[in-house]
Amino acid sequence: MKKVNVELGSNSYEVRVGEEILERVGLWLREKEYPDKAVIITDNTVRKLYADVLGRSLQTADFKVTLLEVPAGEEQKSLETASGLYDRLTDAYVERTTPVLALGGGVIGDLAGFVAATYLRGLPLIQVPTTLLAMVDSSIGGKTAVDRGRLKNVIGMFYQPRLVVADIGTLSTLPKDELANGLAEVIKSAAIANDNLFRFLEINIDKARELHPEVVENMVLETARIKAEIVEKDEKEEGLRGILNYGHTVGHAIEAVSGFSLKHGQAVAIGMMAAAKISSLMGILEESEVARLEVLIRRAGLPVEMPELDKEKVMEAMQHDKKVRRDKIRFVLLKSIGDAFISDEVDPAMVREVLVGWS
Length: 359
Known about the structure:
alpha/beta; Rossmann fold; Dehydroquinate synthase-like, alpha domain; 2 domains; two-stranded antiparallel sheet; 11 strands; about 45% helix
């Protein structure tokens, strides 16, 4: 088991990465001296796979466990689902010192994080991600949110967890397309901040897709370290942290217009290619770097082409993005692999040119 520290003063915490570490969560929480109650929030798919293991770990450490289950799916990230969970927390006589464990992927992490952040003005949150996407992205950094209508993550807050436990053994039950979704965020992190990790992926992407333990552990650890270092410098996304949105400006819009039929990682992959093409059109990024990114995204099993969607609706959705400032859409662009920056000077006509004239 290896660790990455997220240094945020009184909000600091560890990201622990390894195999078969779910069994140790109860002991780790007991070391933090939480009282005798704990709540697991998960979905019906993950419950069948890992709730028993995590529950036994907590019970062995003398926690009284309440298991709260919701259906799987992005549509559960809603105020309605959160309201139902508040009622069930009340029924369980949860106290302000009761840890909430978010067991699952990004949807559960966001939803349970939002609930933990808002119930009784804040319960201790433990992120227990079971997907690669959640391990390297959503479980770290304290973003919690629910969706509203067709807009993703528009109601939420920053609320840091007390601990993140990434058991890479849980990735063995992931469908191939879900693993690819996580690889999109790994590629994104390398593209914006670490050419060494990008080269590591170019060499080892096939082993990563085959879940070679050493490769996966190193990949998750290094990606978590990138995010931790950025979050430490800009916890509330007032500047630098915005580069973590590389590929998300177009990606979130595509997700919304598709009615979320397109998975997050797939949308981000397309968004990364769109931003790279814009960077190239602006004369900032070499074509060879665009090609390098495209090859790796393809090898990860992700799309690189714009889907058949109404391009004007995609443009409209981008106007609702949280990253819009003074009516200007902010893009994360690349100078080179491993070097990103934020710009609000992208001409909308250029965005349309990329979306409509995709080749």
